[in-house]
Specification:
By secondary structure, the chain is of the alpha/beta class. It contains seven helices and six strands; from the N terminus they run E-E-E-H-E-H-H-E-H-H-E-H-H. The protein has two domains: 11-150, no CATH class; 155-180, no CATH class. Helix 3 (91-104) packs across helix 4 (118-131) and helix 6 runs antiparallel to helix 7 (171-179). InterPro entries: DUF829_TMEM53 (IPR008547).
């Protein structure tokens, strides 16, 4: 059976402004606002889907569907361009929220990380924060069984990707921004 062809219902629950849970049934539980812990553990495998900057809901839903059909819950983390440009009030905060969620929802195991483009940057932010207290976060790292990366950009490619994201249909402005970033 092709997991992407089974179009069962997908339900979503916003955990934070930038983190969304995708499941195969309605989420009726409560979430602690401080720890992001589910009051009732899910006891399922989890995909941590690190989305690209311009991923639309239909894109995220398509990937979530594949994993849900395989028995996973999916948590999608997505940053905006501005959150990446101002990390202290953006990507660093979202990294902390993601870690908080993973730390307090220990029943999610194993974890598969599937990331795209800017999602690799965001996962890097998560790893930097966890590296500051490896003893505390070892239980998260030990639950990560697999990582899948598609179009992960490194620092040298940021001017190119940034220019195309901000000015997708304006080559002149893309060139200008590339030269000044």
């Amino acid at each position: 059976m092709d997991p992407s062809n089974n179009h069962s219902c997908i339900y979503t629950k916003d955990i934070t402004k930038n983190i969304t849970l995708y499941t195969n049934g309605p989420f009726k539980g409560e979430i602690d606002a401080n720890t992001l812990e589910f009051r009732e553990p899910r006891c399922k495998p989890l995909v941590l889907l690190m989305a690209w900057l311009t991923a639309k809901p239909k894109h995220k839903k398509k990937y979530a569907q594949v994993y849900i059909n395989l028995g996973f819950d999916v948590v999608v983390v997505q940053i905006t361009l501005w959150q990446g440009l101002w990390p202290t009030i953006g990507s660093h905060v979202i990294a902390g929220e993601t870690i908080n969620f993973l730390e307090h929802n220990k029943s999610y195991a194993p974890i598969v990380v599937h990331g795209f483009s800017a999602g690799a940057y965001q996962m890097g932010e998560i790893m930097v924060q966890m590296s500051k207290d490896l003893t505390r976060y070892a239980q998260i790292i030990e639950r990560i069984y697999c990582q899948i990366w598609d179009s992960a950009a490194d620092v040298t490619e940021i001017p190119e990707g940034l220019a195309k994201t901000i000015f997708p249909k304006n080559p002149s402005m893309q060139n200008f921004l590339r030269k000044h970033t």
